[in-house]
Amino acid sequence: MPSQQEFDVVVVGGGAVGENVADRASRTGLSVALVEHALVGGECSYWACMPSKVLLRAGAVLAAARGVPGAKAAVADSTVDAAAVLARRDEIVHHWDDASQVSWVESAGLTLLRGHARLTGPRTLLVSGETETEVRARHAVVLATGSEPVVPDVPGLAEAGFWTSREATAVREVPARLAVLGGGVVGVEMARAYADLGSEVTIVVRGGRLLGNAEPFAGEAVADDLRAAGVRVLLHAETTAVRRDDGGVHLEIGATSGGPHPDASVVHASEVLVATGRRPRTGQLGLETVGLTPGEPLRVDDALQVVGVDEGWLFAAGDVTGRTATTHQGKYDARVVGDVVAARFHPDGADADGGPGAERDAAPWSRYRATADVAAVPQVVFSRPEVAWVGRTEAQARRDGIDVRVLRYDLADVAGASVASEDYPGVAQLVVDQGRNVVVGATFVGPDAAEMLHAATIAVVGEVPLDRLWHAVPSYPTVSEVWLRLLEAAGL
Pairing mode, if any, of strands 266-269 and 248-255? Predict the structure, then answer.
């Protein structure tokens, strides 16, 4: 018979989101169990955010040096040392050893349960690992199981074998040729990284541009850079069949509906990376036992409580909800739901801030509501040039019925850009709600554009009027001086 354990709160998923939920939920004295079947720290720490950025960093540094007279001669003939990059990647992921993360869990007073968790009914789960344990939550269960790759149904693909982002970031040997299916964040980042590492790269994209969720000019800038790096970019293209033999992997390419035929009918590669999207990982959680549909996103309200489950005991955060698809926004959700649980089920019967009912009556933009998930989500693509945006794109704003004005400025014309590089490529754009005179979206494309994003995030979240933003004086000479130029373009 399985052993039995009981906790106030059970968090399923020990990645960055789950860790934050568990930590915040325990702060009023609730006992919290964290369930994880793989490595504590999850996808971001070992197979996504951290290792992927290490794979990209060396090439970005070399590119920056080549733009600075006095430095470019020293690196003119230099190439990325692939072995050194992979060694540094190994250090960053702690050689895929989660001992330090486990130590943190224990130091935070949490209980780590190793195994796969499956709901068996309201507030009850079966955790299957080396042994089976029946676990009951007195108050709440929080699901933070993340997402999983979507693999297209292409004839021969499964038999030929393929990479997902996990294999791409954990590689031991750089392939001579890499085919990338998909033009989203993972696709363009890995295409750029492997081009830097010495692979001959082809990227196959069903649509007419890269980074379909960003502003069109951002995807065009990234495509131009990839082509300049020798990457073959096939737009309006789809893989119709795959086979592998002693010569590698061979992909048959056709045109998508309505698109021109791509300039290749067959792509030959050593490996193929499938980067065609991700979906919430909910298929094996036992959702059917509580009236939910396995495989579907968990629909939640702004308190991150799952909709459609009685008595308010089930919560979810991160990719599993379908609301967010980044680690940073997932951690924001984690902080919100952790605080909601800590307050709602406070052992003394009062909210954490001492006010009974304060959490249940919380307003938008309070610590108890994930309001920023709606229209203030920041996103960074560590391509070259980097692409960073927050809030709505121009098209999204117009679809939402907002009367918008678009302000755009060439970053090369800012004094700080001329200091950073003799050939600084980049664009900054603000999407302004003319009725309220506030920024509802911003996009930056250029070297280190990610570091410029947070000011825009503050402007969007704070709904700061443009005439007040005009008093936020950017330092000179920095690339952030573009804020002054954008506001001047607005007539201020």
Answer: antiparallel
How many residues are recorded in the chain? 492
Residues 196-237 have pLDDT tens digits of 999 999 999 999 999 999 999 999 999 999 999 999 999 999
Q: Are 17 and 333 in contact (CB under 8 A)?
A: yes
Residue 103 phi, psi dihedral angles, 5° rounding: -60, -40
What is the torsion angle, in degrees rounded to the nearest 10, for the CA atoms of residue 193, residue 197, residue 198 and residue 200?
A: -20
Do the Cβ atoms of 122 and 84 come closer than 8 Å? no
Tokens of 251: 């992909």
Tell me how far CA of residue 416 lies from CA of 248, 422, 425, in angstroms.
Answer: 47, 11, 12
In the DSSP assignment, the letter for residue 465 is B
| Distance, CA of 469 to CA of 10 (rounded, Å) | 44
Task: Report whether 271 contacts 179 (CB < 8 A).
Answer: yes
Distance CA(382)–CA(375), nearest Å, equals: 22
DSSP state of 300: B
Give 488's contacts (C-beta < 8 A, 6+ positions apart).
Answer: none
Beta strands 278-280 and 147-149: pairing type? antiparallel
Handedness of CA 108, 110, 113, 116 (dihedral sign): negative
Residue 353 has pLDDT above 70, yes or no: no
First and final C-alpha spacing in the chain: 73
